[in-house]
Structures are given as structure tokens and as C-alpha cells.
Design brief:
This protein is 41% helix and 19% strand. The protein has 15 helices and 15 strands. β7 and β8 form a beta hairpin. The radius of gyration is 26 Å and the shape is globular. α5 packs parallel to α9 and α8 crosses α9. The N terminus is likely disordered. Strands 1, 2, 3, 4, 5, 6, 9, 10, 11, 12, 13, 14 and 15 form a 13-stranded antiparallel beta sheet that branches. Strands 7-8 form a two-stranded antiparallel ribbon. The chain has a domain of 320 residues: 3-Layer(aba) Sandwich (Vanillyl-alcohol Oxidase, Chain A, domain 3). The termini are far apart. It is an alpha+beta fold.
């Protein structure tokens, strides 16, 4: 037994921070501009129009600034909450929150077209350098193309901590290397847990049973197949990589993107294997259709597996994987025979955490029929990353130096910004990340239990989750392994959002 001084300490991870723009007090850059412009407008109004118009102008300026300062515990300002309410009111008034497809619906050609952000998406299939088929999903609205990799995570059970640390380090190296990937717009990792129907085990055993084997052995296998899936769950994971088709102001065609990405896939899958993701293989068009169809109609998953067991795999097209009916309410999303609720991470873990911090959140839970946890990454180019960390450090220094008595939070942010800048200067990559959590149940009576389970799991992961009110349908689609980059689907420019 090793002495206490010789024991290897488990590494911790942290220093996640949200960059803030420079401004007066708690105001960002946009709030400071609104305040200064309002002061000038009040002075001019008082000089030209008199006292009463100046007072009215002052009240309007104070209301605008107050809407930027009044933030809830998730960091959302009043103007952001009012914008969400306005968008929801518009969706409810126009009826766009309701969706009907199929022969009796309103979808074009009577198909089961996907709703919302995926309505105009197009699916094709190509082959990589290893002659493996891979699905290529195009989103014309943003000019993005997505490829999906299916992985088989090895898990951390009965694995030495040293091996886990190696996996974490290699995952960081893989993400950092993506900063050199030309045209990469976003990366997402989706981990889904769902009840196991037992059909995969039945199909695997049936194909390996020898008719000349002892009767007792076949009876044991039959009993295992019948009893093992009861109460068990499946865990699946996918990695989606989204590329932009725009080069020097011109969009490339689907066949051009397919040829380019086919040469990159072998290297991406091989490098991913050393991160603990296990065997990584491209997802074919048929497999992508099956997983999206199952997400919108969970009951279809059992039918698809039964078809494979019978030797008659279903032939699905992208025009037939959407729901027959969907209803996006203020806080939930009803689709076909299920109802889902999505949350977004509003704050990363504060302080230091261990590598197992997300273990309970990712594990199956008895109160949730189907659960998806999606990590959204945007890997910054090394040149852009250097500018971001330098700007963030200057803004943090400004907040500390401009205050007579800077708060401890401002001082801590200054130190964190300095540490991030130093790590980036040593060659570390810079990644913006977020998280979406989706819980799906088969009956509305189970919804409160699932909501309580997710909120409890979030506390074990030391993250803060905010329910995606008014945008449940969009959050559901973004949580699927289809590579949607939400920042490109928002009308408000990113520069304006970051300055709030």
C-alpha cells in the first residue's frame, strides 16, 4: 500500500467563464452606449423642448437601462425575457407552434416532413476513403453540412483513474485540433439513454446459436434473452460535426462537400478512438433516419428493431421521419405519442470539478423514459482565440481598475481571464460550449416526476439548467445529433447578444 504522500491525487477541472464586454458598473457595452446616448438625448431635449419632455425622455432612458440591469438568477435580462415572450406570442397568434403532416396535414406532397429548424434540411449519402457510407445533412438556411459519427463509449467502470485522465486529456487535444479544421462551424456530442427492448440481444444470440449445441445451453441462452432486457436501458452516443459550405463568399454544392469531407472522415474517426469514445463509425443515411424517427415517435423504435429481427429492415427516407402531429406549448413539446421538456445550461460548474461530474446526469434514470444530453461546442480558430482572450482580459482589467472598491467577483474574474490568456498563449485551444438536456415521457402524468428528476440530476452535476420557455420545439431539434448551430438561426446578431 502506497504511503499517503505517494498517492496520486485526482486532477480537477474548472476555470470556465463567460466573457463579458466592458461597461460601466454591471452594464455591458450595449447598456453603456444606451445610457450615454440617453443622457445626451435628455440634455438636448431639455435645452430644446423644456422640462416636461426632458423628464419623459429621462423616464424612457431609465426604463431601457433597467431592463438591461434586471437579470434573473440565470443571467437573463429583462429585455431578453420580453423578447422571448414576444416571440411566443407571435408563434401562438400565427399558429406556427402547431404542426400537422402526412396525407391529411399541411406538409408539402403529403409527406411527414420535419418541422421547425429542420423543415428545409436535405439528406444525402456518400462514401469516405475507407468506402464506408456516411450521411450528409444539408441545411440551406445557414449553408451548413453535417456528418454524424456513432460511438461506443467504453465507460469509466472498473477503469483506473490514470486511464480516465488520459481519455480526458486526449478529448481536449481532439477538440483543440478541430480549431485547425477548415470550415468547421460547430461540434455536438449527444448521449441518449432509453429503455432496452431486448431485440438487439435477441438478434445477436439468434445468429450465434449452434443447432448441435447441448439443450441445456440453448435453454440458458433463451432464458437470458427473455429476462435480461427487463428493466435495462441502452446508452448511445453520437458526435456531430457541422461545416460551412461558404468559401470566399461562394457556397459549394453537395457533391463538392461530400468529396472534401470523405477524405477527412478516416482521420477524425481514428483520432476520436483514443478519447474513450470507443469505435467511431460514420452514420449512414438509413441510420440517421431511424434515430430521428425514433426521437419524434419513441414507439417507432421498437417497430424498427422488430423489423430487423424479422430480416426485413425498414426503408426510410428523410421526408418520412418527421412527426405526424406536434404542439409546442410554453414549457413542453408534444410530438406524436410522447411529450418532451428541454432545458439549457445557464451556468457551468463554479469552482473545480472531477472528471465524473456528469456521470449521474448521463446515466439512465427510471423516472425518464428517454433522455438526451447534448454538449454543444464551437471551437475557435487559434487566431480568433488569441483576440478573444486578450479582449476578455482587457475588459476584466477595466472592470477592476474603474471601480474604487472592486468586488471579489470582479477580482476573481480578472484572475480567471489572466489564467485563460496564459493557457492560450501556451497552445491550449479555446472552446465555447453549452448544454441541452431533453427528457421524454410517454404520458403527461409522468411529466412532473421527470422534471423533478432532471432538476435533481443537474444539482449533482453542479450546473444550472434553465427551462427553454417558448422555444421547446427548437431546443428539441437542436438536441438531436443533426448538428444544428443555434447561433446561426437567431435574428439578433451575435455581436449584439454578447454586448448585453
Amino acid at each position: 500500500m502506497a504511503e499517503p504522500s505517494q498517492r496520486r491525487s485526482e486532477p480537477t477541472y474548472g476555470n470556465w467563464r463567460r466573457p463579458r464586454s466592458a461597461g460601466l458598473g454591471q452594464l455591458g457595452a450595449l447598456g453603456t452606449v444606451v445610457l450615454m446616448t440617453g443622457v445626451i438625448a435628455v440634455v438636448i431635449t431639455a435645452a430644446v423642448g423644456g422640462l416636461l419632455p426632458a423628464v419623459a425622455m429621462c423616464v424612457a432612458v431609465l426604463a431601457s437601462v433597467s431592463s438591461l440591469l434586471a437579470k434573473d438568477h440565470h443571467g437573463r435580462s429583462g429585455i431578453q425575457r420580453m423578447t422571448a415572450r414576444g416571440g411566443w406570442w407571435r408563434a401562438r397568434t400565427t399558429g406556427s407552434r402547431l404542426y400537422r403532416s402526412g396525407p391529411l396535414g399541411r406538409a408539402r406532397w403529403g409527406t411527414f416532413q420535419l418541422p421547425g429548424l429542420l423543415a428545409q434540411s436535405q439528406l444525402s449519402e456518400a462514401r469516405d476513403s475507407f468506402d464506408r457510407p456516411f450521411a450528409l445533412l444539408a441545411v440551406p438556411a445557414t449553408g451548413h453540412f453535417t456528418i454524424v459519427l456513432a460511438t461506443e463509449p467504453e465507460g469509466a467502470s472498473l477503469v483506473d483513474q490514470e486511464q480516465v485522465d488520459i481519455w480526458v486529456a486526449r478529448w481536449g487535444e481532439w477538440l483543440a485540433a478541430l480549431g485547425e479544421e477548415p470550415g468547421l462551424a460547430g461540434v455536438s456530442v449527444t448521449v441518449e439513454t432509453a429503455p432496452d427492448t431486448g431485440q438487439r440481444l435477441r438478434r445477436a444470440v439468434a445468429g450465434r446459436v449452434d443447432a448441435n449445441s447441448p439443450l441445456i445451453a440453448r435453454q440458458v441462452l433463451r432464458e437470458v434473452v427473455d429476462s435480461y432486457p427487463v428493466g435495462s436501458a441502452t446508452v448511445k452516443a453520437w458526435v456531430s460535426l457541422t461545416y460551412t459550405s461558404t468559401v470566399r463568399g461562394q457556397r459549394r454544392r453537395t457533391d463538392e462537400m461530400a468529396r472534401e469531407l470523405s477524405t477527412r472522415l478516416p482521420g477524425l474517426t481514428q483520432n476520436l478512438m483514443g478519447t474513450g469514445a470507443g469505435s467511431a463509425t460514420p452514420v449512414s443515411a438509413q441510420q440517421l433516419c431511424e434515430l430521428v424517427r425514433t426521437a419524434y415517435d419513441p414507439q417507432a423504435g421498437a417497430l424498427i428493431e422488430d423489423a430487423y429481427v424479422q430480416g426485413e429492415p425498414p426503408i426510410l427516407t428523410w421526408a418520412d421521419v418527421g412527426p405526424a402531429a406536434a404542439d409546442a406549448s410554453w414549457g413542453a413539446y408534444r410530438h406524436d405519442g410522447a411529450i418532451s421538456v428541454s432545458w439549457a445550461m445557464s451556468q457551468a460548474p463554479r469552482g473545480e470539478v472531477h472528471s465524473s461530474v456528469l456521470w449521474k446526469l448521463l446515466a439512465p434514470h427510471g423516472s425518464v423514459d428517454r433522455k438526451r444530453v447534448t454538449l454543444l461546442y464551437r471551437v475557435l480558430d487559434p487566431g480568433v482565440a488569441a483576440k478573444v482572450v486578450e479582449t476578455d482580459q482587457r475588459n476584466a482589467d477595466f472592470r477592476v481598475n474603474s471601480a474604487q472598491r472592486p468586488s471579489q467577483r470582479a477580482i476573481r474574474e480578472q484572475r480567471a481571464a489572466l489564467a485563460t490568456a496564459q493557457e492560450e498563449a501556451r497552445g491550449a485551444g479555446l472552446v465555447d460550449f453549452g448544454m441541452l438536456v431533453c427528457a421524454t415521457v410517454h404520458g403527461e402524468e409522468r411529466l412532473p416526476e421527470a422534471e423533478a428528476a432532471i432538476e435533481n440530476l443537474a444539482s449533482t452535476a453542479r450546473i444550472s439548467l434553465r427551462r427553454v420557455y417558448g422555444s421547446q420545439d427548437s431546443a428539441f431539434a437542436a438536441g438531436l445529433p443533426v448538428g444544428l448551430v443555434l447561433a446561426r438561426h437567431v435574428n439578433v446578431p451575435e455581436s449584439v447578444r454578447s454586448a448585453l
